[in-house]
Specification:
The complex is a heterodimer of chains A (459) and B (371). Chain A has 459 residues and is mainly alpha-helical. Helix content of chain A is 68%, strand content 3%. Chain A has a domain of 269 residues. A two-stranded antiparallel sheet of chain B has the order 1-4. Chain B contains 14 helices and 4 strands. Chain B folds into 2 domains: 43 residues; 315 residues, ABC transporter involved in vitamin B12 uptake, BtuC (Orthogonal Bundle). In chain B, 70% of the residues lie in helices and 4% in strands. Chain B is globular, with a radius of gyration of 22 Å. In chain B, helix 6 packs across helix 11, helix 9 crosses helix 11 and helix 12 crosses helix 13. The chains are: A mainly alpha (459), B mainly alpha (371). Chains A and B meet through helix 6, helix 13, helix 16 and helix 18 of A and helix 1, helix 7, helix 12 and helix 14 of B.
Chain lengths: 459, 371
């Protein structure tokens, strides 16, 4: 076997693809920071936030892949489930009102793991409620129902009606003040979850050692850097967990039914499968996973506001999934990573770099003063400054254009292969494979040649 | 609806009837409560109900007018266009830039006027904009809003949608989300993110209509909105009923391949759809802003889900359905504050949509597609 062959085999492994993408992303970030003379602290911080966003977008894309890639459920209400996850978790795990601290609203004061579990269960239950009517609807109707639901969730947490209310918290009938905080948000005043986790695992000394180690290179206050780096690592661990769970789910008999539903629901029903029940189960599982990401995203941020959960966040996840390729778990992770690095964090990183290197002056406050000099005496500087200053808006324009481009040129994404052989064993022998490639090219199979053996790697 | 929906088990049918009965009962309960409040306990005054219903009517007319375009593209091109809301915003900005320019020429510099006073450089109130104070500027704004949106819709169709015309509805839907993002944030980039007041709120002539126990206020912009939207709706009705175009559209939404075989120039019908739909959408955006007096880059997007609710409620493809759905959604959203906190008025509209999807997924006016 030649080296090219073994290299190709290595590339076939899911882990390699993800690793290559991640290494490329990190190398680009580190190198561009290095070339432009970024400080070590800035480097570490940008790496930490990059890891964080890679983690959350990869997990969200994986959960969405279960809905859309596996089962063909068009869910554009992702933020609704995330919001329910973190809000219910906060409701359960915030300390009781009046137990000290500045928070105007308390919670039930239960341990954080209980809160996380409650948040996931609540998200799954909401998924059940949405799935019941949605099961009977076409994909585009389901889309509208889910996005309407996510807006209803946001309005609920925004409204002053549920800002604060009383619930009994003991069997004796004592009442306590709880609530969702309305538009001003909710302070998450439970103890830091990461430190608590490290404590439980008995790794405090290791963590402290790490802080000391980083302290030798970044003398001034190394604690937050280490904290965010470690949290990023934990999130990457969660990505691996999601990946494993969904891969197992997809390869199980349950997962095969889901794919059958995606391809042709009537056929699956004709084979005696109660497709409704499968769809509900798949939807609820995905929703619980989205709820967990909502919790992981915001639990360490200190506060949560309802307007964080605007529909555009849902579309971010969709763009991540479409970049990676719906139907592929590997693609979901890679898509989440690329979205986070290039489209989500990339423009801001670029803005930071340019600002710190060139030290430009103040940008004009609006489009008019930015364009006037360009028209009057061909001075492009104010316009460029304004453009740089508006990176946050322009990155959304770029995302939109990328989405259009993808749908035109590569709707299956990087790694999407939604047509798979259903057989559980390889249909093509290994020795035959090289001969088969020519036959495939003639066009017996609509999928690309590399995927002709998709049956053995049934993602 | 497809084959799967019509082929349902008998128990499901009875379950459907029970469900429908429950929803009807809940609806009746609200009505009874309304009458009780109005006539017996007096907790709801007629004038308050009248004001809310009038407000809902105005909102509903805007939603209905914008919904006609959405409904037409939904049935003829077979996809839910998520960029429709941003067509509304684009039309509104184009029209209001014109109005500002005509109303403020000589009083402020042209750039700020064209940018609709981005960054607070010109205030609509200071220009005395209103249908009675600056009628020419407002009329020109309405026309430009329509024309600009037609051009935008045609260009976007040519560049974005035509190359993937034969793809599935979901592919087109996702693409339209991309278009929505690009449009909305380009508008924000150019016009800024601040919500500006556009009209001289104090100087609009008002009418006090006495309604049983109090007054319902109606101002000149309400009348303008009413005249423009109803006029355009009637126009579309006549256009689609009396011309071959309407027939061709109906044929296309039924079966595109068959329509093409019959010799209907489908691409031309598609273009006509965008022209009619885009024009109505742009005008609806303009009069909406005229009526509510503020303009922001998010306006159309915030309206979009309500328009979807209206179109689904009325039955996709039916323009009368879109109008009726718009009125129902608008009035529901406004009148619902009698029972629930106003933060949930939009939620109430969504709930009505979901209920209709459950009970009558084909919509109220189904089977009468496109006119």
């Amino acid at each position: 076997m030649s080296t090219a062959d073994s290299a190709r085999q290595l590339w076939e492994a899911d882990a390699t693809k993800i690793l290559v993408v991640l290494v490329a992303i990190y190398a680009t970030y580190l190198l561009s920071g290095l070339v432009l003379g970024y400080s070590l602290r800035g480097q570490l911080n940008s790496i930490a936030s990059l890891t964080f966003y890679i983690g959350v977008f990869a997990t969200l894309a994986l959960a969405l892949n279960l809905h859309w890639g596996y089962t063909g459920l068009f869910n554009i209400g992702v933020v609704g489930f995330m919001a329910v996850g973190i809000y219910v978790m906060a409701f359960v795990s915030k300390p009781l009102y009046g137990s000290g601290g500045a928070a105007q609203i308390g919670g039930l004061g239960l341990p954080i793991p209980v809160g996380i579990l409650a948040g996931m269960v609540a998200a799954a239950l909401l998924g059940f409620v949405v799935a019941l009517p949605a099961l009977r609807l076409r994909a585009d109707y389901l889309a509208i129902v889910t996005i309407a639901m996510s807006e209803i969730v946001r309005f609920t947490f925004l409204s002053s009606t549920f800002q604060q209310f009383q619930v009994p918290h003991t069997l004796a009938g004592d009442w306590t003040r709880v609530g969702f905080g309305g538009g001003s948000g909710l302070i998450l005043d439970f103890p830091d979850p990461l430190l608590a986790l490290i404590d439980v695992l008995g790794l405090s000394t290791v963590y402290d050692g790490l802080v000391g180690l980083v302290g030798t290179v970044v003398p001034n206050n190394p604690d937050p850097i280490v904290h965010s780096l470690v949290y990023g690592l934990v999130l990457l661990g969660v990505v691996a967990g999601y990946f494993w769970l969904l891969k197992r789910t997809g390869e199980s008999p349950f997962g095969r039914v889901l794919k059958a539903i995606r391809e042709d629901e009537d056929v699956a029903r004709a084979l005696g499968k109660n497709t409704g029940r499968f769809k509900i189960a798949s939807f609820m599982l995905g929703c619980a996973l989205m709820g967990l990401v909502g919790i992981l995203w915001l639990m360490g941020q200190g506060a949560v506001t309802p307007n964080f959960f605007r529909p555009r966040l849902t579309f971010f996840v969709w763009i991540a999934l479409i970049i990676g390729g719906a139907g592929s778990n590997t693609g979901s992770v890679a898509g989440g990573a690329i979205f986070a690095a290039v489209l989500y964090q990339g423009p801001l990183y670029f803005q930071n770099l340019v600002t710190s290197v060139f030290q430009p002056g103040d940008a004009p406050g609006s489009f008019g003063p930015a364009v006037a000099p360009l028209v009057a005496n061909l001075d492009p500087v104010p316009f460029l400054l304004y453009t740089l200053d508006s990176v946050r808006q322009l990155q959304l324009v770029v995302m939109g254009v990328v989405l259009i481009w993808l749908m035109h040129n590569r709707p299956e994404g990087m790694l999407g292969h939604r047509k798979e052989t259903a057989a559980a064993i390889p249909l093509v022998g290994r020795s035959e494979r090289s001969e088969r490639t020519d036959a495939d090219a003639v066009g017996t199979d609509p999928t690309p040649t590399g995927d002709a053996s998709g049956g053995e790697r049934d993602e | 609806m497809g084959f799967t929906e019509s082929f349902t088990r008998p128990w499901r049918l009875t379950a459907d009837r029970v469900l429908a009965a429950v929803f009807v009962a809940v609806g009746l309960l609200f009505l009874v409560d309304l009458f009780w409040g109005l006539l017996i306990s007096g907790s709801i005054s007629f004038s308050r109900l009248g004001s809310l219903a009038w407000d809902g009517l105005m909102r509903g007319l805007v939603i209905g007018l914008a919904g006609i375009g959405l409904s037409m593209t939904y049935s003829i091109l077979n996809f839910a266009n998520f960029s429709h809301g941003d067509y509304i915003t684009s039309g509104a900005f184009a029209g209001w830039a014109t109005t500002y320019l005509l109303a403020g020429l000589g009083r402020a510099d042209v750039g700020s006027l064209l940018l609709v006073g981005a960054g607070g450089s010109v205030l609509g109130g200071a220009l005395d904009i209103g249908v009675t104070t600056t009628p020419v500027a407002v009329t020109a704004g309405i026309v430009v809003a329509g024309v600009a949106t037609v051009i935008l819709a045609l260009v976007l169709d040519r560049v974005v949608y035509e190359p993937i015309r034969s793809e599935s509805g979901i592919t087109l839907l996702i693409t339209s989300i991309g278009v929505a993002f690009a449009l909305r944030y380009l508008i924000q980039f150019v016009f800024g993110s601040d919500v500006r007041g556009t009209t001289a709120a104090g100087s609009i002539p008002q009418l006090q209509l006495y309604f049983v126990d109090g007054a319902v206020r109606i101002d000149a912009h309400d009348i303008t909105l009413l005249a423009v939207t109803v006029g355009l709706m009637l126009g579309v009705h006549v256009l689609l009923q009396t011309t071959k175009l309407g027939k061709a559209m109906r044929a296309m939404s039924d079966d595109e391949d068959l329509a093409r075989i019959t010799g209907i120039p489908t691409e031309r019908v598609v273009r006509a759809t965008w022209i009619i739909g885009g024009g109505l959408t742009g005008v609806s955006g303009y009069v909406f802003v005229l009526w509510k007096g503020t303009l922001g880059f998010n306006d159309g997007w915030l309206l979009l889900l309500l328009i979807f609710a209206a179109v689904i409620l009325g039955g996709i493809g039916s323009i009368y359905g879109a109008i009726a759905g718009g009125l129902i959604i608008g009035v529901t959203a406004s009148v619902s504050v009698l029972w629930i906190p106003s933060a949930f008025s939009r939620a109430a509209a969504f709930v009505v949509m979901i209920v209709i999807l459950l009970v009558r997924p084909q919509g109220l006016f189904s089977g009468r597609s496109t006119a």
